[in-house]
Amino acid sequence: MDYFGRVAGFVKNGWKNVVDRLRAYFKKLLFPLWLFPIKLLTYTTYYILKFIIKLLLAFFGLILDCIVFPFKSLKNFLKSIVYIAVATYLFFSLLVIGDYMTRQYGDWDKFFCGAGVSSKLKKSVVRIVGGNSEGSGFFVTDNQIITNFHVIDGEPSPKIIFEDGRFITPVKIIGDKDADLALLQTEDKYPDLVYSLPDDLKFSENEPLISAGYPLGTDLTGKATVVTGNFIDFRKSKASPVGYIQTNLSLVPGMSGGPLIDQCGSVVGVNTQSLAGLSLFITAADVKVLIPGFTDQAIEKINVDPSASPEEAVKAFYTYLKARRMQDGFNLLSKKYLEKTNFTEWTARFTNILDVEIFKSEKFDNAKALGINTDDTAFVKFGTKNWVDGEAEWHYYEGTWQTVQEDGVYKMLKSKIKEVTEPGWDWFYE
Fold first, then answer.
1. No. of helices (H) and no. of strands (E), the chain
2. Around 113, how many Cα atoms within 13 Å sit in the side-chain half-sphere?
3. Model confidence over 178-203: pLDDT tens digits?
């Protein structure tokens, strides 16, 4: 007997039958074309219902067979045992899969929504460089960034650093110190980076959550760090106007102010603090409620007076550089100084300066010995934090600025500034 020939003939005839049936089906479905939408809907509904009915009939038939079938013979009895064993295995397998899906995604509706979540998260999180602290933040509108208040506390001109290394200074800062929240407003808009705040939050038990930020601030280079964990519970403190989400994921300094999101990429909280591996996040719903009441009352203000003295003028000059208020700094250059520069050339010198720290600005006591007018010269010590190729570099300087009064304001005339390499601790405090 030619078994191979019979099999080949069966496959050939079977394939031809399938092709003929598909051809007839598509012909029936597509023509006339004007009936295609209605046919697609009705045919789809028909075949789905037909499949469900057949499946249910087969299921009930199997149950009936398992009840009646075994008593006809020993062979049938053994078959039924096998059927029941397979059905039991499949049933408990579904329970295990369901439990896994719940633990992995929280809810079934979150199973298919995780594509591209981590990628957007890394692009959307920004570094926030404050005075005494550094952290992270994210856009809640196209020109507003939320972060923790403690990140920018005492700093009137924090810097916002994007994933690609660009940095800007916010044009306005408001916040709520008691809630540990601050809102930084940018001049330009960034609609692609926005995470909208929800009105309400609901989590399933042990629902997976994702957080991101820049650990150790500018001390650690690279892209934002993404960490995962699970929802534990909601927490409330009498000392705080906000509620918290408790998770088992780990946060480190520098990640404060970053977003906490669910598997679908919806923001649910703001990174706040971590204790013994249990991290707390301000609920995004509370953040949304509090933002309209934010003020600038607790925000550090820039307060300088270049008309008071040469040393105050020098302090104002470097304060404006620190705040990236380049036009104000440029306005403190004297007419004679402006003979050798212009705004574009002058601002280009400070492109990479992320921060300026003024350690000393005082009257220069040795001016007479050097043949300099004591009344218009100031001695200054300062350091600059430069952002170069994604890394922070500190440089330290000292020297004198000779000033001249113009229109009642002391302006920069001539400088003798030198870089101090590897200064000792006494250099900062002498």
1. 11, 17
2. 12
3. 999 999 999 999 999 999 998 888 88
In angstroms, what CA-CA distances link 118 with 113, 124, 125, 207, 265?
12, 10, 11, 17, 8
Contact assessment for residue 228 and residue 208, using Cβ atoms and an 8 Å cutoff:
yes
User: What are the CA-CA distances from residue 44 to residues 20, 24, 40, 53, 78 (Å)?
Assistant: 20, 16, 6, 14, 40
Pick the CATH number of 117-293 from 1.10.3290.10, 3.40.50.920, 3.30.420.10, 2.40.10.120: 2.40.10.120
381 has which bridge partners?
Answer: 360, 398
The answer to whether 126 and 138 have CB atoms below 8 angstroms apart is: yes
> Alpha-carbon distance 48 to 45, whole Å?
5
Residue 254 vs residues 47, 125, 140, 186, 284: alpha-carbon distances, Å: 56, 12, 19, 21, 19
Q: What is the tens place of the pLDDT at every residue in 23-67? A: 777 777 667 777 777 777 887 888 889 888 988 887 777 777 666
| pLDDT tens sequence across 283-307 | 999 999 999 999 999 998 889 999 9
CATH topology of domain 310-429: Nuclear Transport Factor 2; Chain: A, (3.10.450)
